[in-house]
Write a structure and sequence with these properties.
- This protein is mainly α.
- The chain has one domain (2-99).
- 74% of the residues lie in helices and 4% in strands.
- The protein has four helices and two strands.
- It has helices spanning 13-23, 28-40, 46-87, 91-99, and strands at 2-3, 9-10.
- The chain has a two-stranded antiparallel ribbon with strand order 1-2.
- A hairpin with a 5-residue loop joins strand 1 (2-3) and strand 2.
- Helix 2 (28-40) packs antiparallel against helix 3.
- The protein is rod-shaped and about 85 Å long.
């Protein structure tokens, strides 16, 4: 537990880790409620609590963008593989070219 100059407690790294594990898979609104319930019993500095919520929101935003990027990459790969397969000569085309000679 860390104390701020104001005399209020700040969420320390152990508390943030415990809260992070509790809210890892929750939607942000529910996670925010769990965090608010946790800090309501203590004399926590509101700025440190808001900072933790902002960090959690930023992490979720990064995860969402990573999923979107992964999906876009998969779509690009699918298009490239499809184009390569479409433009590949088939074995029947090779047989026709050798029989004409």
């Amino acid at each position: 537990m860390e104390y701020q100059p104001s005399g209020m407690r700040a969420l320390d790294s152990v508390e943030r880790a415990k809260l992070g594990m509790k809210v890892f898979n929750l939607p942000f609104d529910e996670a925010e409620g769990v965090i608010d319930d946790y800090v309501s019993g203590g004399n926590y500095d509101p700025a440190s609590v808001e900072l933790f919520k902002d960090q959690l929101d930023t992490q979720r935003h990064i995860q969402e963008k990573a999923y979107e990027l992964f999906d876009t990459g998969a779509q690009i790969l699918r298009l490239v593989v499809g184009a390569v397969l479409k433009n590949m000569p088939s074995p029947l085309d090779d047989d026709k070219s050798t029989s004409r000679e």
